[in-house]
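This part of the workshop introduces the protein records we will be handling. A learned vocabulary of local backbone shapes supplies the integers on the structure line. Getting from the letters to the tokens is the skill we practise here. As an example, a complete record with its sequence and its structure tokens follows.
=====
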Amino acid sequence: MSVNPMAYEAQFFGFTPQTCMLRVYIAFQDYLFEMMLVVESVILKKLHGFPDCKISPFQIRKSTEKFLLFMKEHFDKLFSKMEEMLLQLVLSIPKNVLLPEDKVHEQYPYSKEQFQALQDEINQLQQQYRAEASAGQALQAELEEQKAVKAELEKILQWFDELENICREHGTSNFKESLVFLTQNSKKLQDVMKDVEEKSKKIKKHDQLL
């Protein structure tokens, strides 16, 4: 049997040509064995018509086996030639022929160096993507943290506003200086909140770009 893998032929046929030839060989061999058994049974039946014949069934079996061995040797030689012819002329694809699914390689040929350069570029882009994705996750985490800080600042401002309203409603003069101080701090906190909101907007824009 041929040792050539014939991978391109296997892609076209869906099976290797060697497998096809092996199945044909087994089928022919099985038919040869069955034929010899039929011949042997016919000879045995004919011998029953000659009671004086001194040939025993054992001798017939030995002769059948010898003849079968002779036939198999000649069959193997003939099949070897037939296999060579079929693999070269029938079950092979010429080197100048491309399968339809491989036409794209003819239109866009690539050398090994070009292919390796393309692989390197793909690997580099994958690394850049991972780095940007990691940075995006870090920015997202920072954004969530700033949202939590903003919520806390809003609570503090609300508390200051409520305290200021209470002092104003009750007209407690003892809290005048405290209110001035609280108002100043409230404005500072508002400035901090604006700064946090601006940073949050910048982070969102950067996240959208990713």
In short: The radius of gyration is 46 Å. The CA atoms of residues 20 and 68 lie 24 Å apart. Residues 139-171 form one domain.
